[in-house]
# Entry
Amino acid sequence: MKQRLIRAAHALQVRGHPRAAWLLAAALAAITARDTEALRLLAWLATENDDHASALALCREVLERCPGDVEALRVLGHLCLTGGEPAAALAYFERHDRLTAGQPTVTAVYRHAPLDSGRAALRVPYYSRLESVLVDTAYWSIMTDAGTVHSADTHGRNLGNSPFVRGRISPDESTVIASFPPPSVEIGAECIFVGGDENYSHWLFRNLLKLCSLEAEGLVHTLPWLLNSDLSAFQLEYLDMLGVGPERRVLVDRGQVVSCHRLVVPALLTSRPEIAQGVEWLRGQLARFMAPIGQAGALIYVSRRDARWRHVANEDELYARLQPLGFRMIVPGRLSVSEQIGHFSGAKIVVCVHGAALTNMIFTPADASIIEINSSALARMDDFHRIAQARGQRMVSVISKSYTAPQETVNVNADYYADIDAVVREVERSL
# Structure
């Protein structure tokens, strides 16, 4: 009977009846003389309904009855962190981790901070030299002895999603509680924090463009690079093209923490002037792979038909309209990096389905036109428009709201139908 009542209370909460769920759970707690399972249910309902005071009291009551209740410890940690009590949160999370971790674990509070807020405000590329830091190779955040963690301007990923943080971040993102294994590797030689992202676009935007800040002092061409050990084919090709041979690659496995004695950390480029400098630097480094300036006249349609998801369902019909205008199709996923650079740098007009390959617009001439085909589910992603603005390129996005699946199931990877007439109109304007 008790289990049936617990399931009923869960169902009422999920269906949008929190008051009825609470009353049922409270009655259950009274009937069962406030046993641990009933208290857990009440604590969950209080948390779901943002009643933090009740949730705290209930979880503490659970711990009084069952000091090793890991769920109560986890919830209490989050409640204290949300309530601005990081020290109390740390104590609960430490107890939780001792009970649940299958290996020795370090649990610590960090203040989420920029590398250098003063220099960041200048909107120019810069780097910092750090000593005695820990690097998380899952999300490429940097933890210092001073109790700070650098993430937003080093790799730009959502720190709360890191497997070493697991949502243990305050609402204002100023405080993080990380839980990680002791460092497995120690790197004594000074090296450049490059990191690694298996996404082609992120690799360029997060890992390569920022290196322009090291050019003036020649560091980018002399110091070793700290990278992921499972380098993909395109990453290896970029390293070879940039002259970073195996002897200058410090490779670390993903999902661990490494100790670095001295680390040169270039900050991510976020403003238009910074991005423009990064783009020009990378173009200069790879100029020999680009089409000669002034000879760009190709019209290319960039397909992602080889991708696992997010296809243009009416692509054949679209290409049938573009081909008579002089367009030819390329599928970047089937090309080498140098071939991709060659196609984009030689283009006058690029019609491209939204995807990582569009980052190759870095190599397209400044007077080229970029026509992006995208869906409403992804329209908020503006990295490509930031590149276009930095380079002065004309870029328009043709956004579709027509999907192959029912609207209620649509997500960022859903297949969709391009607005062919709108794409052709934009092409004709560019022509």
